Amino acid sequence: MSKQIIHTSQAPAAVGPYSQAVAAPAGKIVFLSGQIGLVPETGLMVSEAFEPQVRQAFANMKAVIEAAGGRLENIVKLTLFLTDLKQFPVANSIMAELIPEPFPARSTVGVSSLPKDAQFEVEAIIVI
Where are the alpha helices (DSSP H) in the chain? Predict the structure, then answer.
């Protein structure tokens, strides 16, 4: 799947590993539910620490993408949910490490709480 990265100087440049917008050709569109840092085998949170939760949530998301027949390159939109926006640089760094360029469009939202007392959740839209 090829994706067209949309960029205009008439809007602020991306301040992290994401694109202003992404256009994808017609294909199978898959809307992934949010993933938190639960270990699939146990259903328990991987750790009380933020970074392991982020890494596990991205691993869970990758597993769902692959089950749908896709790859991380197929992501056109990510939404990150954080209970503490002061942790944003950590999530941003992990995303930049795990998600291949060109980066998908992205939104980041500060929330008061998440299921299972998670500190981080990620959801995605992919086009295969």
Answer: 50-67, 88-98
